[in-house]
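SUBJECT: A protein chain and its fold
Encoding: whole-number codes for local backbone shapes
RECORD BEGINS BELOW THIS LINE
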Amino acid sequence: PWLSADDLQKMWLLSRGQVVSKARVPAHGQVMRVRLAAVGDAKGDVSAASPEGDCQDGRCGLIKRPGDLYEVLAFHLDRVLGLNRSLPAVARRFGSRLLPYSYTDGAPRPIVWWAPDLQHLEDANNDQNSCALGWLQYQEMLRPHRLVARDAPCSSIPHSEWSRLALFDFLLQVHDRLDRYCCGFQPDPSEPCVEEMLHEKCRNPAELVLVHILVRRSAPSRLVFIDNAGRPQHPEEKLNFRLLQGIESFPAAAVATLRSGRLQSLLLRSLRLDRELWESQGGAEGLRALLQTINRRAQILLRHIQEHNLTVFEDSP
């Protein structure tokens, strides 16, 4: 019931569509954008000659690394909670001769629907954002009854969107959006935020910026959650509460689902629809530890809401 007809259509295209062209994504080494043709689709082979310009009709997907399979779980979590901000994703094994061998070695990879109208900043160094927002500006924006100037960065995005994002990112422990510097926990030396010397910037909050803050041109007031692989193995004692900082209310429907005690069973029902993911992870038994981790984080989030007397708001779709 939480997957729309549009979701199911896109999932079918991603899992069954024939690969008719491919294109590398600049600055993203292990990601391939492919055009897909539904079986019997006459338009499929016509556009194979121009992979750059042929994704405007919504028939493309991004094939990501095998290690990013968690993105598929993230998509189902987004829908089960009624957030509806992630792009459809499925697990798939590829056999197309158009793809490099490393993509066809039999390992399932996530393929995520390519939204043709994501808004990107013109700045080549900051093209993973629709608007440039610093951490301090973001915290200022979240203050209750704060009037945001119409020309301020990200001013088209209402408070409720940041609440959805914070809830989602906390459950998945996605840091590379609100806290790419790992300021909210003590990172291991092998973490990219340490290796890239980002963690040192935590001492100066004015330098911190948000990343992957994206909207679609067709809906500039709704965030789109991308790169949601998160951290299934992130230890409980290091949970990043900075992701929740400044958030004073959460969507009622999502919180009700977390409180219901049915999160794991709902996720299992949803994930069963993705046969490739289901079988590659060993079915319900193989997914159990992962879902228990998310459920524990949900209980910790509910405790946080209770201890800080935070509220819930009724959701608009």
